[in-house]
Amino acid sequence: MNQQLDARTVVTAYVTAIAGGDLDTAVACFADDATWEYPGTLPLSRVWRGKDAILGDFLGGVRTLFAPDAPLEVTLTQVLADGPKAVAEWTAKGTAANGSAYENHCAAVFTVENGLITAVREYLDTDHVARTLFA
After folding, report:
1. Distance between CA atoms of 11 and 121, rounded to whole angstroms?
2. Distance between first and last Cα of the chain
């Protein structure tokens, strides 16, 4: 991403890329040493460190929890930004690998420095994740 881009622009580009399946753009939004904090006590719950771990291991691992032949719809509902911080809210809908219907409303606080995402702290209904994706 470009150093001149503000937090709102970078975060919007990232979520839009994920929603559209544009992995190259999603990868380009992150600093090499970025972190992503995923809450709760799920197998995915931890601080993921580094662009490769975030996009490959974490987000790639999440995708395997969904039915491979069904779309995963990500809809960005809003982005609020102030300086290097942006809060994004989105809805994720899909079919779990076990056939359960999944719909979760998610939010995350992003830190953007020099046009790249350096940190993410996500908030979502982890109980719903546990019941539908890990049942």
Report:
1. 13
2. 38
Q: Give the separation between CA 106 and CA 100, rounded to whole angstroms.
A: 18
CA angle 135, 35, 40 (to 5 degrees): 30
pTM listed for this prediction: 0.94
Structure tokens given for 17: 């890329």
CA 14 to chain centre: 8
Q: Over range 35-54, report the average pLDDT.
A: 96
CA 100 from chain center: how many Å? 21
Half-sphere exposure of 71 toward its Cβ, with a 13 Å CA cutoff?
Answer: 7
Tell me what percent of the residues of the chain surpass a pLDDT of 70: 98
* DSSP sequence for 14-77: HHHHHHHT-HHHHHHTEEEEEEEEE-SSSTT-EEEESHHIIIIIIHHHHHTTB-TTS--EEEEE
Spatial strand order in the sheet of 46-49: 46-49, 30-38, 116-123, 101-113, 85-95, 73-82
Tokens standing for residue 107:
């939010």
Residue 48's H or E segment, with its range, is strand 46-49
Integer-rounded Cα Rg, in Å, for the chain is 14
